[in-house]
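Continuing the series of single-chain predictions for the mutant panel. This is the parent chain; the variants come on the following pages.
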Amino acid sequence: MFLNLRNSIDFFLRRKIHFSRINYTEKNENKADLGFSDFEVKQENYLLNKYNFEDYKNNSTVANYCQNLYILNLLDKYLFVNPKEKISILDIGSKNWYYVRSEYSYFRKYCTELQLDGVEIDAYRLYANFYNRLEVAKFYMKGLSGVNYISDDVRNINNTYDYIIWILPFVLIEPHRYWGLPDKYFNPHNLFKHAYSLLNSKGKMFIINQGEHELEAQKNIIKGLNFETLLIDNIFYQYKYNRYLSIIEKE
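Parent structure:
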């Protein structure tokens, strides 16, 4: 009860005040020794060449580069895109959108016009350095055409999309509360139902969960739909818990 009250007050103040330092930046770090295995080096070179990702390797921190390689590898391995003139993508729960370069580079290869929207309900959450998520996202998005960061509840979005990416949705109440969101926003079934309604016919949703407990909760939400679930290989970036990928295709 007390945690929900505190989260509600803090969340209200964040959305009202929008406090943040501005002009967030990161400096490039040397990538000479990333500690990759022979297999990872081979896969890295493949991704760099296929998606013209070399420039980002030379203009990023080590951690962010590896995180983007991790996502780019997942998209390349599991999400099969039909090339066409325009492709629309929605990323739900984008946080500071540290991985936007991987999404952009992947989808941009398969179209001439790209619409990539990221939506984050808690865009004004502050970090210890006094930058909020939105300001950090602006840095990662810099120079990317057709990319938009939306500070809002996904349930207020009514556009339709060819692809939806949802990394670590809140399917359990404990993580939802831990990250400072009021209980009234916790309704995973309703959120998924709305997100699914935004998919175009034959569209695909790409959901990543961590840990077996969250995976089972996710499966309960999407049961009855056309989906497959896979254990994700830990390549390029190591996470504490196993991560699972569910791919849902709309009929």
